């Protein structure tokens, strides 16, 4: 157990909510981001030599090269996010560096965002609002701006973990959608009707809407161009997982070629870059990675990261240890 009379040096790479930063300042010699801008890789690499712990977010990449440097001082990385695809966790394990994440607290908020995107793209909300804001709306029309209803349609979930289940539950019980899903491991105790299929291809072929909830950071997207090619021309795809969870280039090509009806994005392959081709499309809804962006959830995520820091420096088991 560490002597907490000597405050550990902790670098917080991005701004957290005021409540969380106040808590950190009381316990640690904490250095906070003043401008909330991403740190350049060279600065993150240097921070590993200067601080005993880092508090990054999912957009702050910590690579194997950074972690394997001789003389790295950092022993704990408390990631603010449900995933850790921004961190080379294998290299952290080899270097004896603990890594934690913030699961569970953002499940409902992210599921809400997925439903927001599903409703937006199927009802053509962006195109309708754009028309109104630009002064092109001529009044009510029976046949103008028609979207698609989701009641009795098939929602395909790729990745039936906590968030995937929360989306499916909302869609099934709240909107009357039929649920199919693919998950690498068995799923039970859902509390609503859902059919597991044996492949991503099988889900893509039958779904009217596909919602992606698989990890990124694996090099090759789990949802590939071949998977996207299996979708029906009338189908929609929504991604609230990670930008590299699917082949973004293939999805854009499918949209441009009208091989699918539309898509909703909350995450992108190279954030904050969003391809111009995508930004010009009216059959998509684009959100700037706001899946968990509520005051309550972002504060809870921050507190969970600090809980892990506290546990590490007090010699206790981490509440949500990844490595």
UniProtKB/TrEMBL annotation:
Residues 116-291 form the D-isomer specific 2-hydroxyacid dehydrogenase NAD-binding domain. It holds the Pfam family 2-Hacid_dh_C. The keyword NAD applies. GO terms for molecular function: glyoxylate reductase (NADPH) activity; hydroxypyruvate reductase [NAD(P)H] activity; NAD binding. SUPFAM superfamilies: Formate/glycerate dehydrogenase catalytic domain-like, NAD(P)-binding Rossmann-fold domains. Transmembrane segments: none annotated. Residues 10-322 form the D-isomer specific 2-hydroxyacid dehydrogenase catalytic domain. PROSITE patterns: D_2_HYDROXYACID_DH_1. It comes from the Bacteria. Keywords: NAD, Oxidoreductase. This is Lactate dehydrogenase. It comes from Litoreibacter albidus. The lineage of its organism: Bacteria, Pseudomonadati, Pseudomonadota, Alphaproteobacteria, Rhodobacterales.
């Amino acid at each position: 157990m560490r002597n907490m009379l000597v405050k550990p040096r902790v670098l917080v790479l991005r701004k957290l909510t005021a409540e969380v930063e106040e808590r950190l300042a009381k316990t640690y010699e904490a250095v906070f981001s003043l401008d909330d801008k991403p740190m350049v890789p060279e600065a993150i690499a240097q921070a590993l030599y200067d601080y005993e712990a880092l508090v990054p977010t999912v957009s702050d990449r910590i690579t194997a090269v950074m972690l394997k440097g001789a003389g790295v001082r950092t022993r704990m990385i408390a990631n603010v996010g449900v995933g850790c695809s921004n961190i080379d966790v294998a290299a952290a394990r080899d270097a004896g560096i603990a890594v934690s994440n913030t699961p569970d607290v953002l499940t409902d908020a992210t599921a809400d965002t997925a439903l927001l995107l599903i409703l937006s793209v199927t009802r053509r909300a962006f195109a309708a609002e754009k028309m109104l804001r630009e002064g092109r709306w001529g009044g009510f029309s029976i046949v103008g701006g028609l979207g698609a209803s989701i009641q009795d349609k098939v929602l395909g979930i790729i990745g039936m973990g906590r968030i995937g289940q929360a989306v499916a539950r909302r869609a099934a019980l709240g909107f009357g959608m039929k649920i199919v899903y693919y998950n690498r491991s068995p799923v039970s105790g859902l509390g609503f009707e859902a059919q597991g299929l044996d492949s991503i291809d099988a889900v893509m072929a039958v779904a009217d809407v596909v919602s992606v909830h698989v990890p990124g950071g694996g090099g090759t997207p789990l949802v590939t161009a071949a998977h996207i090619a299996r979708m029906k021309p009338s189908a929609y795809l929504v991604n609230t997982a990670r930008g590299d969870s699917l082949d973004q280039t293939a999805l854009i090509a499918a949209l441009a070629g009208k091989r699918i009806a539309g898509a909703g994005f909350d995450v992108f392959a190279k954030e904050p870059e969003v391809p111009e081709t995508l930004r010009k499309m009216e059959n998509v809804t684009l959100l700037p990675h706001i899946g968990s962006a509520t005051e309550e959830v972002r504060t809870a995520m921050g507190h969970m990261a600090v809980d892990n820091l506290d546990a590490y420096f007090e010699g206790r088991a981490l509440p949500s240890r990844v490595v």
